Amino acid sequence: MRILQIGDANISSTRLAVAVRQLDCAVDVIGTVEGVNEALRVATYDLIICDFDASVGSAELIVMVKKLRSGKPDIRLLVCGSRAALDHIVTALDLGADDFILRPIDGDELRIRISALLARKPQREAVVLECGPLRLDMVSRQVVLDGVALDLTPRERSVLQVLMRHRGHVVAKEDIASRVFAMDEDVAPQAIETYVHRLRRKTEHPRVNIKTLRGIGYLLDEV
After folding, report:
1. What does the alpha-carbon distance between residue 85 and residue 51 come to, in Å, rounded to a whole number?
2. CATH architecture for segment(s) 2-119
């Protein structure tokens, strides 16, 4: 899952980014209108978080919310801020933002709100992804194989999530990398090979198969 956070390097915004990353999300934190426009041009996001405690400027954020809602209606918009920013948050909701969260932010509440927002997308995201005996709960982030919980790293879960969302279809290595790594991570797409290798070992089962198609990508499906 890839998220664009409109914020900056202040403590509150940084804490928010850390909390979102703990949900196995790749997060691009951008603090300028120009930077946001460029990010939207080159990347695909599942969710945009507008932080009204950032130094971007509330008036600019309000304009951005209005523009995003009219120009990209399929992207979910979550606005956040302290109670001092409540008036701006209400305005953003009136303009079409999908939900809000107030500081101090609780990690469990954030996870539930993000999961609920993605489940409301026009192309609804399943709360639980399944491939035969393999299940990934998007809210709890627990991965279970034949009733047994698997011990996966956050990055392994992120790669598995992409493969399970596209179950039965080939996903290019570069496409997986674009959904798993943020812009500020200097990681080559070849790193995906390592994560897929680990996933193949940890999810080994007669009914689950992660197939490598040389030069094309990976395919997860039930045997």
Report:
1. 10
2. 3-Layer(aba) Sandwich (3.40)
